[in-house]
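JOB MANIFEST
job_type = single_chain_structure
chain_count = 1
residues = 116
[input]
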Amino acid sequence: MCELTAHARAKEAVLYGHLLHDERARSRVVEALQELERIRAALTDLELLPAGDDKWPSRLAALADAVRNHFRVEKVELLAIARQALSKAQATELAASYLAERTRIKADLSCFAESR
């Protein structure tokens, strides 16, 4: 869970944040952000279900499908736009920023989990 959360938040902040300024990518980035919000809501819904609830398997399957679809569309559409929009130097800089942000977020999430 921590890995997925850190990945998503870092990607939103760094890659999506950058691509929002590119007219070719803007509408797809907004859609991707909305998809991620629906995925977070579905995950929260799943976490709140009582153990043994009959709805759990179907909701987990729906969540898995939503995550797979998000990554597929992101790979095919957004990353293709990013390859066109970014120079090699920009891509390298964004990759480094993403890794640093993901590491920072994971550390923050670990601190939160430890304090509970």
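[summary]
The helical segments are 2-19, 23-48, 56-85, 88-115.
The CA atoms of residues 10 and 102 lie 5 Å apart.
exit_status = 0
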